[in-house]
Amino acid sequence: MARVALIGATGLVGRTLAPLLVADGHQLLILTRRPAGVSGAREVVAQMDAWPAALADEAVDIAISALGTTWRKSGSWERFAAVDRFAVTAFARAARDSGARQMVSVSSVGADPASRIAYLALKGTVEADLAALGFARLDIVRPGLLRGERGPDRRTGERIGIALSPLVNPLLVGRLRRYRAIDAALVAAAIASLCERKEEGRFVYFNDSITRLASR
Fold this sequence. Notes:
Helix 5 links the parallel strand 5 and strand 6. This protein has helices spanning 14-23, 51-54, 71-74, 77-97, 118-132, 156-168, 184-194, 207-214; strands at 3-7, 27-32, 42-45, 62-65, 102-106, 137-141, 146-147, 182-183, 201-205. A 7-stranded parallel sheet has the order 3-2-1-4-5-6-9, sandwiched between helices. A two-stranded parallel ribbon has the order 7-8. It is globular, with a radius of gyration of 16 Å. The model is unreliable at 156-173 (pLDDT under 50). The relative contact order is 0.15. Helix 1 (14-23) runs parallel beside helix 7 (184-194), helix 4 (77-97) runs parallel beside helix 5 (118-132) and helix 7 (184-194) packs across helix 8 (207-214). The two termini are 17 Å apart. The protein has 8 helices and 9 strands. By secondary structure, the protein is an alpha/beta fold. The longest helix is centred in the middle third of the chain and has 21 residues, at 77-97.
């Protein structure tokens, strides 16, 4: 089994993903700002800027980022980018330097560095940052709106989108299917199934392929 380093273990996808990785027999190291409490995993509880140094003496096969914040938490664009871009890329670089051949990152449908929507442009820029690091295998997971219990961190628009998703999802057909809301648990299961894939290259997954991966 692989030695896996994970950030974002306390988030919507990560808190389901971490136990799956342990159950699959991986040696899981969680880097986190607050205890995740995942049985069978090692945890380094520290501020984000200390995470790369924490990997310096580790041997890593796979790096996984399920990290993401919300505008409510961050309070400014600079702080938002500090988490969603710079913390992710610093972690990825440190994991690569510790031997990781595979990187898996949760992005967003519509991610594009050239997007006029700042959030999607940032997500696309992160994807480009990760591709430039030279992992043998890079898996980019681009789900639609994530369904699951996030608590008070949900933005009003997200809450409305989730509430309407049973009505809206059937209307999104063809290429629009990728914009459907999707359960965070499916995304977590899909990521777990990607671990230790040997084929090299860059791979991008949308809702349909995420669902297929989750069923394996």
